[in-house]
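Take the subject:
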Amino acid sequence: MLKLILLAVLLSLLKCGQAQISFTNQLCTARNPKIVGGSEAERNEMPFMVSLMRRGGHFCGGTIISERWILTAGHCICNGLQQFMKPAQIQGVVGLHSIREYLNGIGNGPDALRVDFKNIVPHPKYDCNDVKHDIALLELVQPIKFSSHIQPSCVGSDKGQRSLEQEYGTVSGWGWTHENQAEGDRSDVLRKASVRIWSNEDCERSYRSQGKSNTIGDTQLCAGYENGQIDSCWADSGGPLMSKEHHLVGVVSTGIGCARPGLPGIYTRVSKYIPWMQNVIAGRK
């Protein structure tokens, strides 16, 4: 019976939605960063995106992975005291394009939908004072009703997959457009950017060349450019990094600044946490 439950969970995690704009009819399954050097996403282009809000303001991103579960970064659920927040302190908005339109009750109409959470499940080894295992699951009070503009993402797996190194992924969010908040602003509309995925060895070597001692573990991956300029930034945290096949492969986690040369963004490598995700979801059925 347990094997059957886990198989059902796996199938739900690997189910693809139907993106209506840029994913050619198929869709599979980010440090508080806004996208630096990217472009505005088309409305409804990324139906798996979630805005996490607190006190009426966006603070992190997330990804729909099933009708009852959203994936985000562990540090997104930490408060100013470095303790985990309670579910009632966070709300999610799915089907969102413009934050201003949503808050003012205009434009988005039926597209944007608020969702509430009943459980917050950080990875058991995650600590608010550490960047390791920076991943968390949010369980919804009510299941999401999927539509053309609200769909789950598919989750990428290491098994049987080629290396992602040197390929390009897409990161998206409503974060800041510049590391210096006096020079940039937080995006009102969803933005996206294409970033190159690095090998962990090259990433760690590049950080060291910049005088930084970051260790990039096998549960992390890096994406960005040698000359910087394009990156996730403040308030993009928890959002998705999608592969070219539109699988969720990373969660915006940490880094140093935004879009700095030689310092690519660091993401949680989602494929390393699929067994944990399966066990959590199966245990909540």
The helical segments are 2-13, 99-104, 200-209, 274-283. Residues 2-13 form the longest helix (12 residues). The chain has two domains: 47-152+273-282, 155-271.
